């Protein structure tokens, strides 16, 4: 819900065949969350909660981020997109969802 406006902008741009804008909005939104919001939440937790949060990630989480970055880099490298690249992104998302569901 927090990035609904950005996601709707990306979808509308993709529907108008402006894939460069759609991909920039989608990738920029993810970068913003990863590099700004998560660390700010950690610093805020020192003042709000009874116990501070941390950014300790498991091996699977780090591997998932690495795979996601690699696949998005591969898709965004040529600046164009087609249905197969979209299906590839959905397949990676599905595989990661299944892995996180079954592994502790």
Automatic annotation (TrEMBL):
UniProt subcellular location: Endomembrane system
Domain Sodium/calcium exchanger membrane region, residue spans: 2-101
Keywords: Ion transport, Membrane, Transmembrane, Transmembrane helix, Transport
Gene Ontology molecular functions: calcium:proton antiporter activity
Annotated transmembrane regions: 21-49, 55-76, 83-103
Cellular-component GO terms for this entry: endomembrane system; membrane
Stored InterPro entries: CaH_exchang, NaCa_Exmemb, NCX_ion-bd_dom_sf
One Pfam family matching this protein: Na_Ca_ex
Membrane topology: Multi-pass membrane protein
Family annotation (Gene3D superfamilies): NCX, central ion-binding region
Gene Ontology biological process: intracellular calcium ion homeostasis
UniProt superkingdom: Bacteria
ATP-binding is among the record's keywords: no
The UniProt record lists the keyword Chloroplast: no
Protein name: Cation transporter
Organism from which the protein derives: Eiseniibacteriota bacterium
């Amino acid at each position: 819900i927090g990035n609904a406006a950005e996601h709707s902008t990306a979808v509308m741009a993709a529907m108008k065949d402006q894939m460069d804008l759609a991909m920039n909005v989608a990738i920029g939104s993810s970068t913003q969350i990863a590099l700004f919001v998560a660390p700010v939440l950690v610093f805020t937790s020192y003042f709000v909660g009874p116990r501070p949060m941390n950014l300790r990630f498991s091996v699977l989480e780090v591997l998932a981020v690495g795979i996601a970055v690699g696949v998005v880099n591969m898709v965004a490298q040529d600046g164009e997109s087609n249905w197969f690249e979209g299906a590839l992104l959905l397949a990676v998302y599905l595989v990661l969802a299944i892995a996180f569901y079954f592994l502790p």
